[in-house]
Amino acid sequence: MPFDVTLPDGGGRFANQTVLVTGSTRGIGEGIAKRFAREGANVVVTGRTVEAGEATVAEIRDEGGEAVFVEADMRDPDDIATLVEATAEAYDGLDVLVNNAGVETNTAADEATMDDWAFVLETDFRSYWLCAKHAREYMDEGAIVNVSSNHAFLTMPAMFPYNAVKAGINGMTRAMALDFGPHVRVNTVNPGWVAIDRTTGEMDPEYREHLDAIHPVGRVGKPEDVAGVVAFLASDDAAFMTGESVLVDGGRSQVMQDDMLPDYGARRERGPE
After folding, report:
1. Which of 128, 162, 207, 264 is catalytic?
2. What is the mean pLDDT of residues 92-96?
3. Residues 6+ positions from 145 with CB-CB distance below 8 Å
4. pTM, whole model, 2 decimals?
5. Whether residue 162 lies in the annotated active site
């Protein structure tokens, strides 16, 4: 999908900076990669699917941005070390790391297996630590943004260990903020419902309308919504923020009882009253 590459005077907030975004071949990660490219960064796109990664890079370059793709499996510690080294070599340094790669399971705590546990913790948790640990070696100063989930705060049945790990990411962010400061800031973004293939690809129209209606902003999120907050946290505009977890959920966390809500989707369609 084309994206706006019009930049402010001076080339954007991230001109001449290098940004690594894990899990950026699709979905939220792809949106984040494109946002940084639009703001002038050299972007390293990474994931396991070469075709999708190269397509993302091609879209960025076609619109005037700069990016390369590096294949990596976030469950493989050697791949992570190689990825960070390749990023630093490609653009002579590293300024921003966005830990985004993740998987989800739909199992209850009393149903999850050791394989479920390893699958989620190695991908969604250990990889964040290892990416940050290796990136820190190349960052004299900069920012790390960990993408977690609203499940870190409020969750639902049969989302284990995904929900436990997302809460853990918030704790990891606080630990990194203390250990990497003052030169590297570390913050978390916690998205709610975001319309990507994994979450809404096979959803029937009626349920999608219901989801829009129960969000106080009148719709579910888009990758661009998350990308904007990630870019803010990585920029000098957030220079006095570190160790924070920012919820980006269209107001859903403020709702106590759905059946008391107005139809926000219908309100949005009507426009200002």
Report:
1. 162
2. 97
3. 96, 97, 98, 99, 186, 187, 188, 189, 230, 233, 234
4. 0.92
5. yes
